């Protein structure tokens, strides 16, 4: 028997399968053909139910909706960019304030450190200045004695004792940064010298210290006591 083209309906997917079988009855062929025509007719009616213009309108509406969404997103992006710009400006302001504050704190720390060092180095200035009078008295006592013409041993012993006391006091001064500075032959400096009187001498430059009446002292780099001097005038 010649093979016949068979058609079987797939109910799950709504499609048609085609195959070759033998010994196919006329009743079965009629039933399959009827179902096939019914399925094709349903698809044709469904495809003609929506005109082309309606499809275009739907596509246009969808496109317009998408464009509207894009516009909303663009506006949102602009708003976010504006907000971000404001935040960046505020961050720069805070950064500048922070750097300024750090610089001020560093300056304050340096100034505080210098004040502490100055307090430590110059804390004995008042006491040391008082001791300078003692040093002056010992120095004058030594200068008043003509050691070459002293015969009595008691006077020599007194002189030696005063000399040792004076030397010890000078060493104590030096240990605490207190030193005597020279003034003779130097130009008058109002920060270091106190002019008591002037001496007229055309052979020397004006303002030169020609005599030291009372020595001057410094504690580290500060003048503890100005030297009392006589200067040249011409």
TrEMBL record:
Q: Does the keyword Chaperone apply?
A: yes
Q: Name one GO cellular component term.
A: PAM complex, Tim23 associated import motor
**Keyword Chaperone appears in the UniProt entry:** yes
Query: What's a single GO MF annotation on this record?
Result: protein-folding chaperone binding
Q: Which domain of life is it from?
A: Eukaryota
GO BP term (any one):
protein folding
Question: Coiled-coil stretches, from where to where?
Answer: 63-115
Q: Keywords of this protein's UniProt record, alphabetized?
A: Chaperone, Coiled coil
Give the family from UniProt.
Answer: Belongs to the GrpE family.
* Database matches in HAMAP family: GrpE
Q: Which PANTHER family match?
A: GRPE PROTEIN, GRPE PROTEIN HOMOLOG, MITOCHONDRIAL
What protein is this chain from? GrpE nucleotide exchange factor
């Amino acid at each position: 028997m010649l093979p016949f083209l068979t058609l079987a309906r797939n109910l799950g997917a709504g499609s048609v399968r085609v195959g070759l079988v033998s010994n196919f009855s006329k009743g079965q062929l009629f039933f399959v053909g009827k179902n096939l025509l019914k399925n094709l007719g349903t698809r044709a009616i469904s495809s003609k139910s929506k005109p082309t213009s309606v499809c275009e309108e739907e596509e246009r509406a969808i496109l317009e909706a998408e464009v509207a969404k894009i516009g909303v997103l663009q506006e949102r992006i602009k708003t976010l960019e504006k907000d971000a710009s404001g935040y960046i400006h505020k961050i720069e302001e805070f950064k500048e304030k922070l750097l300024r504050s750090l610089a001020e704190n560093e300056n304050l720390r340096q100034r505080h450190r210098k004040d502490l060092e100055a307090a430590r180095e110059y804390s004995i200035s008042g006491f040391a200045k008082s001791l300078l009078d003692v040093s002056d008295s010992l120095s004058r006592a030594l200068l008043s004695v003509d050691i070459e013409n002293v015969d009595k041993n008691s006077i020599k012993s007194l002189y030696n004792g005063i000399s040792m006391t004076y030397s010890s006091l000078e060493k104590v001064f030096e240990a605490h940064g207190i030193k005597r500075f020279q003034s003779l032959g130097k130009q008058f400096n109002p920060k270091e010298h106190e002019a008591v009187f002037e001496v007229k001498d055309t052979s020397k430059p004006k303002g030169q210290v020609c005599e030291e009446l009372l020595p001057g002292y410094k504690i580290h780099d500060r003048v503890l006591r100005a030297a009392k001097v006589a200067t040249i005038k011409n």
